[in-house]
Amino acid sequence: MAKRPLSLTTYLAAQRGPATPAPPRPPRPAGPLVWLHAGSAAEARALLTLSARLDAQTSQVSFLRTGDWPDAELLPSETLGDIQEFLDHWRPDVALWTGTNLRPALLWDARDRGIPLLLADPGGPVHGAPAPRWLPDTVPLTLSLFDTIFVPDGHAERRLPRVSLGRAQIRRTGALTETTLPLDCNEDLLEETLTALSGRPVWLAAHLRGSEAPQVLEAHRRAARLSHRLLLALVPETPEDAVETGRAAEQSDLRLCRWDDGEVPDETTQVVLCDGPDEIGLWYRLAPLAFLGGSLSPGHGGTDPFEAAALGTAILYGPNVGRHLDSYTTLVDAGAARIVRDEDSLSGAVSHLLAPDRAAAMAHAGWDVVSHGAGATDAVIDRVIELLDTPHAGAA
């Protein structure tokens, strides 16, 4: 065990107290275990993306989640007895910490056991540790424990304290954000459908709720007055939404093609109706512009917008996106998404964005957001895999 620096010894003395009874814990999974600590709900969503991609690349990896997850394991207090019980039980092989709130005693003990520590720094506020102001500053020491610190930009790097912090530990990768992998698509079907559409402009209503269908259909009717070859693809979210959407489409008197019945749109088709989102990757590729459902009608919380952004689609959405508000805010700030509130604003937005250069500019902005987040995720995953493949003195 390495000798503790004076600042840590003083800090631990201030944390002295009896160990608390350990909460019931599930058994440690067999095989490699990666410890993911989320400093916020947004960072938890980013780590969820990362863990899914890491799981796809590395077989038999399990994850320990602490911090701001709905199903998080509780972190121990900063007393040594609680920390030792926690680490003795879980024995993580690699730890990835996000956020700026540090736990000096926990991280020191983990590093002392040979567990490699990674930090995904979100930028913004300076790092802090839970200690009285009169104690020596433990932040520089704690940051020096990390094998690698991933920072979003130069500003975040410059705000790091230089005491005991080697530049070799720091990598600028962009911010670690929630992203998604592009949805698959049958390439042969894509080519066949492109041929059948003969260059017609297409827009998409994705993950549509049945209650939204009349507004979307009316918006299409109005937009088609300015572009008579315009085609709308409706992709309902559930079978119940498909029934309600189909009923609304039939009542609209727009010429309808039922995709899942084997019908193919021709020059007279105005609306293509799918039964569900099984082939939504195809329609994102065909439509440069998409309205994301579950956002005009309250109670659904919206649809993950990175699904569309990952395939280069400009995004329209309604005001009810509480489940994905951070993601929409990021895309709006980048110029990749635009809010609509009813059929009037939806039809106006569709007509405005039918110009290829306008939709392309939004789509490019969205792709930049997704690709930057994916770059940071890839950099962290690569380092995690390197460390998992390198023997160390941690869990055995």
From TrEMBL:
One of its GO terms (molecular function) is Kdo transferase activity. Residues 28-174 form the 3-deoxy-D-manno-octulosonic-acid transferase N-terminal domain. It is an enzyme of class 2 (transferase). GO terms for cellular component: plasma membrane. Keywords: Cell membrane, Lipopolysaccharide biosynthesis, Membrane, Transferase. It is found in: Cell membrane. InterPro entries: Glycos_transf_N, Glycos_transf_N_sf, Kdotransferase. One of its GO terms (biological process) is lipopolysaccharide core region biosynthetic process. Signal peptide: none annotated. Pathway: Bacterial outer membrane biogenesis; LPS core biosynthesis. The active site is at residue 43. Its EC number is 2.4.99.12. Gene3D superfamilies: 3-Deoxy-D-manno-octulosonic-acid transferase, N-terminal domain, Glycogen Phosphorylase B. It catalyses: lipid IVA (E. coli) + CMP-3-deoxy-beta-D-manno-octulosonate = alpha-Kdo-(2->6)-lipid IVA (E. coli) + CMP + H(+). Belongs to the glycosyltransferase group 1 family. Involved in lipopolysaccharide (LPS) biosynthesis. Catalyzes the transfer of 3-deoxy-D-manno-octulosonate (Kdo) residue(s) from CMP-Kdo to lipid IV(A), the tetraacyldisaccharide-1,4'-bisphosphate precursor of lipid A. This is 3-deoxy-D-manno-octulosonic acid transferase. It comes from Roseivivax sediminis. The lineage of its organism: Bacteria, Pseudomonadati, Pseudomonadota, Alphaproteobacteria, Rhodobacterales.
